[in-house]
Amino acid sequence: QVQLVESGGGLVQAGGSLRLFCAASGRTPGSYAMGWFRQAPGKERDFVAAISRSGGSTYYADSVKGRFTISRDNAKNTVYLQMSSLKPEDTAVYYCAASGFTGGSYYYIEIYDYPYWGQGTQVTVSS
């Protein structure tokens, strides 16, 4: 089992920045590819960004490409999501997820590839 706890969410004005943190614990969390997803009110949970176990490969949804950066520090069992140039449409609950896959250079973008989820952190961007 892997336990995930997100933090760093909050209220920010459009154009501002936030950094989300995902602290992982349990069974070797540093061994898994990781991802961030988000869910706005009344909408489905959508993929945001993914990173391979090694951190050498990343992938982003088109809606956040160039504005968000995913990274990880395996020594600290922490995954980050740096969000810049935030827009009101970025408002959502952001979830960290662990894939359970240990391939070094692979990332995953489908919800069904992620068996482990955090409780989410709210990000609200005001216009």
Order of helices and strands: EEEEEEEEEEE
| Helix percentage range | under 10%
The proportion of strand residues reads: over 45%
Count all strands and give the number.
11
Tell me the number of helical segments per DSSP (H or I, 4 or more residues long). 0
Task: Compute the separation of the termini in Å.
Answer: 40 Å
Largest sheet: 7 strands, mixed
Uncertain segments: none
Backbone structural class: mainly beta
Compute the gyration radius: what is it? Answer: 13 Å
Give average pLDDT, whole number.
Answer: 94
What shape does the CA trace take? Answer: globular
What would you say about this model in short?
With 127 residues, this protein is an all-beta fold. It has no helices and eleven strands.
